[in-house]
Amino acid sequence: MKNTKHIPHILLFMLLFGLGSCTKFLDENPTGSLTPSSSVTSPEIARAFANSAYSELTTLDQGSGGYGGNTAELMEFMSGKAFGNAQTESFRFYNLTYDAQSFYIDTWWQGLFYGVANCNLALQKIADIPMDTATKANLLAEVHTLRAFYYFYLVRMYGDVPIITDVVSDLNNVNPQRNPVKDVYDQVIIPDLLTAEASTLPWQDNTGKVSMGAVKSLLADVYLTYAGYPVQGGDQYYAESAKRSKEVMDNGGFILFPEYTDMIQPANKNKGEFIWQVQFAAGLSDNDLTAKALPQYQDIAVYSDEFGGLVPTTQFVKSYPDGDKRVQERQFYYTKYPRNGTTTDTVVLGGYYIYKWFDVSAVTNTAHSDLNYTIYRLADVMLMYAEASNRAEGSPNATAIAAVNAIRQRAKLPPISAMSQDEFEKEVWTQRYLELAYEGKIWFDMLRTRKVRNDITKQFDDFVGHTTVWGKTFTQNQLLFPIPLREINNNPNLVQNPGF
């Protein structure tokens, strides 16, 4: 018998998997959990398995990594455009001294593979439950989308990763090797999304479940990334990306919010500009970023701690063009706020802080944030279309220019007109930086384009060789995170990424 001390932590979970969170759905002889051996037959149980596949979406935004820590901070620190005043060891990321034991490295790996495991079990069980054919196909489409989503993060963060698409039931299968990035896209991510695309999922879903709009948005992102680095699939995949993002723009249902502050109104969750979000509920499952992004110890909030865990660099905020509404007070950022419990005493914060996660009710009254974390919103998809169509067609078309101008118009910037392909691409990249800042997008844009917007020169540098405002220079080693040391130690078939 194989020595179980060599079973990786996450793969052992896949083997001994239980879904205690689904027990509330059980009507038939509940045993306390749903496992690979559970005998279940009702449509309600099928829905419960599908629901379980959503549970690890909170990996994108969860408290982790010590005081002031949240998983969302990792990509922002890595970009060199954020820091944490009191965040434990945050300096290791923006100083590029992190290693395979640094916090977040393991948290992300574990959460994403837990998500994959949930999806694999759900796909297996739902397929065997007798129910209406169309309903079953749509439940499976949700789960296929979620599995693709988890793997999309895994390949962008860690590169080659094990392909695990079945429930692990044999100890001989718990030490898998890494599969090439392209194979993960070709064998899992893209097929899963094409399966979901062929379903009859509703175009929108205001409860947070996967919709066809979400499928198209994710597929547009996947093809845009596949066309770029590291796969470099080519112009045909830019065209596939543009096709999906154009459908999101054309089919209706999603609109740009008139005001940026509409995005921090809990009443707007899963509506308007929001295509797909991670769900949070005040008092039940709070959005952790509201507290973690508060300025440290400034007494503007009712939270017991004001963490200062995620703070934008001054250089990045000052890189916005003159007149840009996004940097006006309490749009994307703020520099002052009334002292808690007063209406006349304003605290000048001494720097810029992120307003995108500022839940006014939570900060001033409840200390429980009801905001969702956004995966895709319309502005993101419009900029995907602009970039992808420009690459696919060799120059910007009228729709692409109009999409960029809609983003600029809301920011109170003058419209652009005809541009060369290269000029337009850099304009789109710039708008992605300025519009989607601190939403988990910039780092992945850096990786797929191998370009970095220099906050000082406002030009685009090559990724390898770019020096951040912290005086640290990106090398090839920063293109991938290390495989967590615990996984390397437990699985002799895993080979560490270069530099770690």
TrEMBL record:
Is Membrane a UniProt keyword of this protein? yes
Q: Which residues form the signal peptide?
A: none
Record's InterPro entries?
A: SusD-like_N, SusD_RagB_dom, TPR-like_helical_dom_sf
User: Mostly located where?
Assistant: membrane
Any one Pfam family here would be SusD_RagB
Which keywords has UniProt assigned to this entry?
Cell outer membrane, Membrane, Signal
Start and end of every SusD-like N-terminal domain?
A: 24-224
Spell out the subcellular localization from the entry: Cell outer membrane
Gene Ontology CC entries for this record = cell outer membrane
What domain of life does the UniProt record list for this protein's source? Bacteria
Q: Which residues form the RagB/SusD domain?
A: 331-500
What's the name of the protein? Answer: RagB/SusD family nutrient uptake outer membrane protein
